[in-house]
Write a structure and sequence with these properties.
The structure holds two protein chains of two kinds. By secondary structure, chain A is an alpha+beta fold. Chain A is built from six helices and five strands; from the N terminus they run H-H-H-E-E-E-H-E-E-H-H. The chains are: A alpha+beta, B alpha/beta.
Chain lengths: 196, 328
């Protein structure tokens, strides 16, 4: 696999601040288990929140929720508000990076937009502004994603708190003990008369 | 998300955004979000609109003819595909050395699980000495087998010796001659064939949930017209899931000779017998145990998927593949 242009996406920017391994897998289209409950919840939440004002805007590597409600204090040239719907503000710094990435891309496209992180379940809204600090952090994240995806293998799994609810959990942590001849009998719980 | 098994005859159709099964008893709605696969044993009519719908929803259809023979699977285009992983999968197939490593692992896993089962029955007083010796011989010879065909032959020999112990393991008067496939010539053969096809389809359904291509197998000859990877992975689980299911059903007296029909086409399960096997099979797949590495409770159906994850990690060259081992 030669050096091709690395497809950076907003999702990867979000991931890279949480877990490099997940970034590598996702960047190679090895998606997590689709039936994972929290994933399904997230999909559902994005699809069902703000049905009246939400529109999707798609550019290569980004799918943004456009919230058309112009804030009262909007500047003259502020065209729109983009939002990112999340289940909870956990790892908010990563979410800010993701939204910052969209703001940066849209600014490069000549659009003056404002960003909001939306948490429908908590009924919270967080404003995100593309400050010089955030911009620098986003650029750094982009570079990290690009470097990561060049690696021939995924970085090895590292236990972090996010593992518990991650859809990659089983993929990352499954392993089999080396073959031995005899093993200790396992303690079987409430199973009835299994044949071995 | 779970499979639905359809025994009745009628019509399968799309009704707005859900699946409806219309039979003489009336309409039965199957909520599309909760269905992973449909097992179709009955005489069912369906149309293209229905096929397009289940394809979009990523639902597999497994077809069986009226004798319970597996006809084939409607496998909608992968909705998960990773170019990077498919390339690795092919690399490992084309490279003779790497292909042998995987083919050997599948046979090794299969033989070790057979061995575990034989040891269990030895503790219960069944004479298994000869079979154990054959298995151990085959296990020892695995490293000298230099082709998938040679590996298959070793597995065949071991299984033959293992099958010879079945009449002592199975407590009921159940005929079991030599292994016969198309058609099965006796009750035990009919059960093995039917059980295996349930396992092949169960593994296939899990492959669908991963990024692997089911057409590229390592032990079974790959030709891009059939699914073979599921056959490879199934070898490991046949003793664990199918063989033990047969022993359990027969030794508990749940399954009896009256559940079989003998005809010119061979011996096969009647409707009642088939339902009984399928019901027990589904319970088996939903049965859970504590997974030592994950420290979580997982079902045997999930275990099939975990096996594929280990395979993916092997292909990504981050963790050598070690097949699932039944704990004694």
């Amino acid at each position: 696999m030669g050096p091709e242009p690395v497809p950076v996406t907003g999702t990867l920017i979000w991931y890279v601040a949480v877990c490099p391994r997940q970034t590598w897998l996702m960047g190679h289209n090895i998606e997590p288990f689709r039936d994972h409950e929290l994933l399904a919840l997230g999909r559902l939440l994005a699809e069902t929140s703000y049905p009246r004002e939400r529109k999707e805007l798609e550019l290569p590597g980004m799918k943004v929720d456009v919230l058309r409600r112009r804030p009262i204090d909007a500047d003259e040239d502020e065209a729109l508000v983009i939002g990112e719907v999340k289940r909870s503000p956990r790892a908010q710094h990563a979410q800010r990076l993701q939204l910052g990435y969209y703001l940066l891309r849209l600014r490069d496209a000549g659009l003056h937009v404002r960003g909001e992180l939306r948490y429908p379940e908590q009924r919270r809204v967080e404003q995100v502004e593309l400050t010089p600090e955030l911009e620098a952090a986003v650029r750094q994240a982009i570079q990290r994603v690009e470097e990561l995806l060049q690696l021939p293998q995924p970085p090895p799994p590292v236990r972090i708190p996010a593992c518990t609810n991650c859809a990659y959990y089983e993929f990352c942590w499954v392993s089999e003990a080396e073959p031995t001849t005899e093993r200790v009998p396992r303690n079987r719980g409430r199973k009835r008369g299994s044949s071995s | 998300m779970k499979p639905i098994y359809i025994f009745s005859s009628g019509r399968l159709a799309r009704h707005q955004n859900t699946i409806v099964l219309e039979t003489e008893e009336g309409k039965r709605f199957l909520p599309v979000e909760q269905v992973s696969e449909l097992y179709i044993f009955g005489e069912v009519d369906l149309n293209k609109r229905f096929l397009e719908f289940v394809a979009r929803e990523g639902i597999l259809l497994h077809f069986f003819n009226r004798y319970g023979y597996y006809t084939g699977t409607f496998y909608p285009r992968e909705y998960l595909a990773s170019g990077a992983l498919i390339l690795r999968q092919v690399e490992h197939y084309l490279d003779q050395e790497r292909r042998l490593v995987l083919a050997r692992a599948f046979v090794h896993g299969s033989l070790r699980n057979i061995r575990t089962i034989l040891l269990y029955y030895r503790r219960r007083g069944v004479t298994v000495q000869h079979a154990l010796e054959c298995i151990d011989q085959s296990l020892a010879d695995l490293n000298h087998a230099l082709s998938p065909a040679a590996l298959m032959a070793l597995e065949g020999q071991a299984r033959e010796a293992y099958y010879a112990t079945w009449p002592s393991i199975i407590e009921a008067e159940f005929p079991f001659g030599p292994r016969t496939r198309r058609p099965p010539r006796d009750e035990t053969n009919a059960l093995i064939s039917f059980g295996n096809s349930l396992l092949y389809t169960a593994v296939l359904a899990q492959i669908y949930q991963t990024h692997l291509d089911p057409r590229i197998g390592y032990l079974h000859e790959t030709n891009f017209r059939r699914h073979t990877l599921n056959l490879d992975v199934a070898e490991i689980f046949k003793p664990v899931l199918v063989d033990r299911l047969i022993f359990r059903l027969v030794n508990r007296g749940q399954l009896q000779r009256r559940h079989f029909v003998t005809g010119a086409e061979g011996v096969f399960l009647d409707d009642e017998g088939r339902k009984l096997v399928v019901e027990t099979w589904e319970q088996t797949l939903q049965e859970t145990y504590r997974h030592p590495a994950l420290n979580r409770s997982v079902s045997y159906r999930t275990t099939l998927r975990l096996e594929l994850y280990k395979l993916e990690k092997h292909l990504l060259e981050e963790q050598s593949y070690i097949p699932f081992a039944l704990r004694s």
